[in-house]
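#struct-pred

JT: dropping the chains for the assembly here, can someone run the whole complex?
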Amino acid sequence: GDSVTQTEGPVTLSEGTSLTVNCSYETKQYPTLFWYVQYPGEGPQLLFKVPKANEKGSSRGFEATYNKEATSFHLQKASVQESDSAVYYCALSKGGYQNFYFGKGTSLTVIP
Amino acid sequence: GALVYQYPRRTICKSGTSMRMECQAVGFQATSVAWYRQSPQKTFELIALSTVNSAIKYEQNFTQEKFPISHPNLSFSSMTVLNAYLEDRGLYLCGAGTGGGTLYFGSGTRLTVL
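RK: done, full complex below.
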């Protein structure tokens, strides 16, 4: 079946260090891949999306490459800040909102 | 940009009573609205998908009798939780779609049931 698996949290990092949140997906079709970020007390916000294989998405210093061969979409940031503390969700869409799948989320805490 | 307003932000209701939440899309046409419930463990459960001019499709374990949804136009949707009980607690999220495959979410309505 279709699914998204991501790094289990919580993840705690010091400010200025690098971040990688692994995301792997499973589907028989060619999905669009998303990263969402959810701050405390808010709904998920779209960080970026990548509709095509081998392309990269980026926003606010975060980036991820759609790797079709490895079925991965890992989120990276070179230097995290305290304001990046949030829950990050990897998601895929096969087209049609009924086919929108979220990972379980990775909680990130950045300490100053 | 695409914005989704959801209200109320928080609501408390007595066990067995009902509450209604609303979702408004601003800056784009919400051809589809997906209602989710987010558990305390942060996972998302899709309740139903509403597409303008089509029947609302409910996921397994969720019914129209319990979670009636209205989606009368391209900017507004509402959902009611009827006869709420403890197991209905959680953060209810409205995700509005433009047809381009992206869902934009509101801030959610947190339901507490006493």
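JT: nice. The mean pLDDT of chain A is 94. Chain A has no helices and twelve strands.
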